[in-house]
Amino acid sequence: EIVLTQSPATLSLSPGERATLSCRASQSINRYLAWYQQRPGQAPSLLIYDASNRAPGIPARFSGSGSGTDFTLTISSLEPEDFAVYYCQQRSNWPKTFGQGTKLEIK
Amino acid sequence: EVQLVESGGGLVQPGGSLRVSCVASGFPISNYWMGWVRQAPGKGLEWVAHINRDGTEENYVDSVRGRFTISRDNARNSLWLQMNSLRVEDTAVYYCVRDSGPFQFDHWGQGTLVTVSS
Questions:
Q1: Which positions in chain B touch A93 (Cβ < 8 Å)?
Q2: Which of B16, B34, B45, B25 is nearest to B70 (CA)?
Q3: Which H or E run includes A26?
Q4: Is residue B9 left, alpha or beta, with left meaning phi > 0 and alpha meaning psi from -120 to 50?
Q5: Which of A42, A46, A101 shows the shortest C-beta gap to B105?
Q6: Cα separation of A6 and A85, whole Å?
Q7: Residue A64: CB partners within 8 Å, gap ≥ 6?
Q8: Chain A contact present for B111, CB below 8 A
């Protein structure tokens, strides 16, 4: 099973700042990585697929990068609605696994 | 507008059974793989099961294989998860997901809570 390790567990930033979230895979997953956002009390929603492609309707301030084992989600300038939990997910191998999440909180 | 609406969650004793349902609207599920993802209270996400477009191929996470069965009816635009031999550790919100991928979950329902407790 591929283990996805997200860091940091919690990130405290202010609106307008830049956020950088990391996801590391226990073995190479090519570019088969997605990012999801989960706001409190809501279902997750797809942000990024295949490492760097924004899902329809996702603002340009969200970007993804990486390949192999190391991936990054960057939010260029935080808006109030961006404070949420973010999960990465791999679709390279069985079973399809998620990271444990990074909570982005207001400083 | 794409919508996925789950129902059927509730409280069940260990060893019991429950069937959760998902009704889709705004798109024909016949064009998509569909699946279930769960989230234990205060925890992260776990992919549970997946089914192909015509229902001839199913996949499960090891922890539920042999106990859970995913099924679909394209004519009714509906998806189900039959859960048998439930365990306390199956307690979670179960989300119905549309797969635009493979295994890229582009739409999620609001979830239905399944609680396994005596």
A1: none
A2: B34
A3: none
A4: beta
A5: A46
A6: 11
A7: A33, A35, A47, A48, A51, A52, A53, A54, A71, A72, A73, A74
A8: yes
Omega within 30 of 0 (cis) for the link into A95 = yes
Which tokens go with A11?
A: 């990130």
Instruction: List the alpha helices (DSSP H) in chain A.
Output: none
Q: Is A58 on the interface with B (CB under 8 A)?
A: no
pLDDT digits over A5-21, tens only? 999 999 999 999 999 99
Q: Which residue has the tokens 């949420």?
A: A84
Q: Please indicate if any CB of chain B lies within 8 Å of the CB of A96.
A: yes
Place of tokens 């509906």: B78
B35-94 confidence digits (pLDDT tens) = 999 999 999 999 999 999 999 999 999 999 999 999 999 999 999 999 999 999 999 999
| B64 to chain A, closest Cα gap in Å | 12
Task: List CB contacts (< 8 A) between B100 and chain A.
Answer: 46, 49
